[in-house]
Write the structure tokens for this entry.
Amino acid sequence: MHTVAVLALDQVISFDLATPIEVFSRTRLPDGRAAYRVVICAPADEVDAGPFVLRAPHGLDALREADTIIVPGTSEHAAPVPAAVLDALREAAAHGTRIASICAGAFVLAATGLLDGLRATTHWLAAPRLAELHPQIDVDPDVLYVDNGQFLTSAGAAAGLDLCLHMVRKDHGSAVAADTARLSVMPLEREGGQAQFIVHAQPPAPAGATMEPLLRWLDENADQDLTLDDIAVRARMSSRTLSRRFREQTGTTPLRWLHRARIRRAQYLLETTTHSVDRIATQAGFGSPTAFRERFKRVVGTSPGTYRRAFRGTAC
């Protein structure tokens, strides 16, 4: 039987902790036998889980017997990780143990150095901090999970379900994984990544920046068919000077800023109106419905129709 060890640290997020326990404990093979043995381990007898105290039945020695180790997220993302935990994870990795993190658990896994040179993800809000602390990791904030073979990482807490079901499918096939997904009231695969949940805010300009009036004008006129030359005329400067100053103050180019404004407007219209996708394409300033669908899919990670079904308010 495959043993899954769930590592509990202080300030562990309860949902992250419960997810692998529920998924792997419920998984059954075609003959009805349990597919996994789940053990909870911690560096101390008791773990401060915030609203409650968890008494862990196993210590870090249990990691040596595990086939898979799950590292749930903690509320203190950048908190120092006990050296004993890091050593135990490195030792397990050296023996070929599969190690997966849920949400901010990526920070713990990153602290071991095991993710260096690899692609990884975490909750999109925490992704910039992970990239800042560990520049040697290729942090991708747009996906639900990343599978590097031995090391896997997932995005937010719900994406932990996606990752656990993915591992079940790898271990025992789609039929077993589909049965487990049904018990969790989850699809075996969700369309899109966590990009659809990201608030695509514009890069802020420094207070008092000379570009602020132009940014407001761009936001108000995002539905217009504007070129770089059009924007330069509005700014009363050459295209080259505009591009240089715009990047200095916003970190991006005028046209990229404009495209983000259009995507943000399209998301708002999809969430708050019943207008057709073709009409929204025009209202948001895209040249054609086809161009709108392609760019929306590329930026948000899902189609406009799927986004609307997921996020439109019930009052619409």
Notes: The chain is about 45% helix and 10% strand. The first strand starts at residue 2 and ends at 7. The two ends are 50 Å apart (CA to CA). The CA atoms of residues 162 and 190 lie 8 Å apart.
